[in-house]
Each structure stands twice: as C-alpha cells, then as structure tokens.
Design a protein that fits this description.
Blueprint: H1 2-27, H2 36-53, H3 58-79, H4 89-111, E1 127-130, E2 133-136, H5 137-159, H6 161-171, H7 173-178, H8 183-209, H9 215-218, H10 220-230, H11 236-255, H12 262-274
Helix pairs in contact: 1-5, 1-8, 1-10, 1-11, 2-3, 2-8, 3-8, 5-6, 6-8, 10-11, 11-12
Length: 285
C-alpha cells in the first residue's frame, strides 16, 4: 500500500509539472491552450533524441528539453498565440486543438508512430527498500525535482515583482501599460516558461509514461482535471489536485483494475460538486 502511495505521489508530481503551465495560462492569462500537451511531447522527444541517439547524458538533456520547449513556446506565442488572447474561449479551443493535430502529424511523419522510452542512467533504474517500502530511485528523483519546482513556482507567482506584474497585466492591461509594465514581454516570458516546464515534465515522464505522437491527446484530460479540480488562483491548488489524481489513478488501477481510469473521473465529479470553483478557487475575472 505504501509503495502504491509513493508511486502515486511521484506520478502526481510529474502531472503537476506538466500541467502547471496550463494553470498559469488559463488562470492568470485567461487563455485556454489545449495544445499544452504538445509542448510536453516536444520536451520528451528532445530528450529521447539527445539521450538515445546522440549519447547526451540524461541530466544534461533535461535543461536542454526545457530550453527547447520554451523557445518553441516563445516563437508560437509571438507569432500565433498573441493574436488569440482577446478572442473568445471557443476560438482559443479550436485554434489550440488545431495545433495539437498539426504537432501529432508532424511527429508521426518525422519520428514515426511507435512508442519510445528514454534510456536512464543505471542508478536511476534501481529500487531499494526504506522501512519495508519499495522505493524506485527514479520516482524519488522526480518527487525531489518536482517538489523544488513547485515551491519555486509558488514563490515566483505570489512573492515576486514579476508575479505581481503578471497579475496586473491580466487584470487591466491598459492600466498596466500606463504604469510602465511591458505587457507583451510579461505574457511572452510567462508563456515561454510554462511551455518549458511542460517540456521538462515530458522529459521526466518519457520513461514512466512512454512517448508517442498521441501523447498530447492522451494526457490532455489529465491536465484539464488538475486545473479544474485544483482551481487556477495559484500553484497550491493544482499541486494538491495533481497529487490526489496521481494517488487515485495508481491506487485505482492497482486495486480495482476492472474500472481502469474511471476512479479519477469519480473523484473529479465529487470534488467539483462540493467546490465548483475547484479546491482553491479560481482567479477572479
């Protein structure tokens, strides 16, 4: 039971890192970006190519995956997304869904449709016992890395000048510009960092989740559940929601395999019936 709990926490932390960028763009920037999973897929494939084909060390490939995904996100934000910020949510959904299918088709054409995994260092593939609990070294690594990222993100959004400028730019961009805030730069940096974090999550999850061109669609619902259940007012809600989702999904598939992923949808419905605005509410609009 404790082993399943540990694996569920690791899975939840991984989901949080991949979904936190969507939480920021949806909750703070009011942008529905259903193509968020495509950036996670990009980071995963960058890592697979660097490690498996070019022999780059795994730990060196992780920051490169973040940078590559952030640059892709920045380029798309400046050329495409900037034109849909003030569009309706339906237009944003249709636009981002189109990007998802374009990304899936591009990956299938260039890299093939087979599922791939990243080659981990030998010491990360080991398991060891801690007080009778079987602990995977790689899952422990994910928990530590994602925990540090979660704390850093919460601090950046709630305690830094950039976080306050982002909230001001979203609430009233006209006034923010009048106060000397470069709204376009704030949005671009935020989108790029969110895309980079998605790519880093995809890189970390390439071994646990597997990677194929359907990755953005396969995990799109999970990302949306994290944001919907946790609320989008900050980082705490999505983190708690991701942990609940991870533990429920792993435990449900282990103890009740006949129900598959049905458990997480029941959990989502119960939480949203109890708190329609998510566990920690949403940013006011």
């Amino acid at each position: 039971m404790l082993t399943n709990l540990f694996d569920g926490v690791a899975y939840g932390m991984l989901l949080f890192v991949m979904a936190c960028g969507l939480s920021v763009t949806l909750g703070l920037m009011n942008l529905i970006n259903l193509a968020h999973g495509a950036f996670a897929m990009a980071g995963g494939y960058v890592t697979v190519i660097l490690v498996n084909r070019l022999g780059v060390p795994f730990f060196a490939a992780l920051p490169l995956a973040f940078v590559a995904s952030a640059l892709i996100g920045l380029a798309l934000e400046r050329t495409l997304y900037v034109h849909v910020y003030r569009k309706s949510h339906l237009e944003q959904v249709l636009f981002s869904i189109g990007l998802v299918f374009m990304a899936m088709s591009g990956v299938t054409y260039t890299l093939g449709s087979q599922q791939v995994f990243v080659h981990l260092p030998a010491f990360l593939s080991q398991r060891f016992d801690v007080f009778g609990v079987s602990v995977g070294a790689y899952r422990l690594f994910i928990i530590v890395v994602c925990g540090v990222l979660a704390a850093a993100l919460q601090f950046a959004v709630a305690r830094t000048r950039f976080g306050s400028r982002l909230r001001a730019a979203v609430d009233d961009p006209v006034v923010a510009r009048g106060l000397g805030i470069n709204v376009n730069l704030v949005f671009a940096v935020t989108f790029a960092v969110g895309s980079g974090l998605a790519g880093l999550g995809g890189a970390l999850g390439a071994e646990l989740l597997g990677l194929d061109p359907s990755f953005p669609v396969k995990f799109m619902v999970y990302f949306l559940i994290v944001v919907a259940v946790g609320g989008s007012a900050g980082m705490t809600g999505p983190l708690v929601a991701a942990l609940l989702l991870g533990v429920a999904d792993v435990s449900g598939k282990y103890y009740l395999p006949q129900f598959g992923a049905f458990i997480i949808y029941v959990l989502m419905i119960v939480v949203l019936l109890w708190r329609p605005q998510g566990l920690f509410g949403r940013a006011a609009r």
